[in-house]
Write the structure tokens for this entry.
Amino acid sequence: MTTALLSLLARVLLAIMFAQSGYAALSNPAGTAAYFAGLGLPLADLLPWAVGAFELLAALCLIAGAATRPVAALLALFAISAGFLGHYGQGDTATLVFLHQQMLLKDIAVSGGLILLAIHGSGPLSVDARRS
């Protein structure tokens, strides 16, 4: 597989998580708002719409390779923040603590991939490459 195709594949694989999460937030705003309220976040009723729209739009930008560097940087910050807000210190049983730790580590790892994408850009099969 060529570097161009692998870059596209990497963008799609990173985007899948955000697209699914954004869709879930928008398709169940009441449940998402309850989760955010349980975390003590302000404006919990508005957050599902803002977070869901951000995640879906950012995922589409990653897939298309449009504004890749700034979008990847924002998503990296978002993933680290969401990981610590949603998973650090969460869980009331050993199993749940372990699962939340794994989810936090996943968010940190995904952020690493996004930081690389922010540094190196989208690759040749992208809107960004066509613009330059």
Notes: The first helix runs from residue 3 to 27. The chain has one domain: 3-123.
